[in-house]
Amino acid sequence: MMRIHKYDERYNIIKPILDKKLEIMKSMSISQVDTSFYFEFTFDNQPMLVLCYDYNWSYDNTYEICYTDMKDSKHVLDSDQIRTIYN
User: Fold this and answer.
1) Could you report the per-residue pLDDT of 31-40, keeping only the tens digit for each?
2) Which of 42, 43, 49, 52 is the most exposed place for a label (fewest CB within 10 A)?
């Protein structure tokens, strides 16, 4: 396994990616009794766009990916959503 020290110049290249990954992991909800999970995140340069992943969280035996565009509505209600559901 290769490690990059925080004073290595390459560290600054990957730091934004690592920070985003930590942000996503902190917002993640994982069930303690089964394999369900839910997480969502916004895009740094487009904060009114949200991407979420839901596995068995809202519905049993379902995996959902949801893209929400709130640029026009400024909130979830009346926003544009694209949902992909796998059963």
Assistant:
1) 888 889 999 8
2) 43
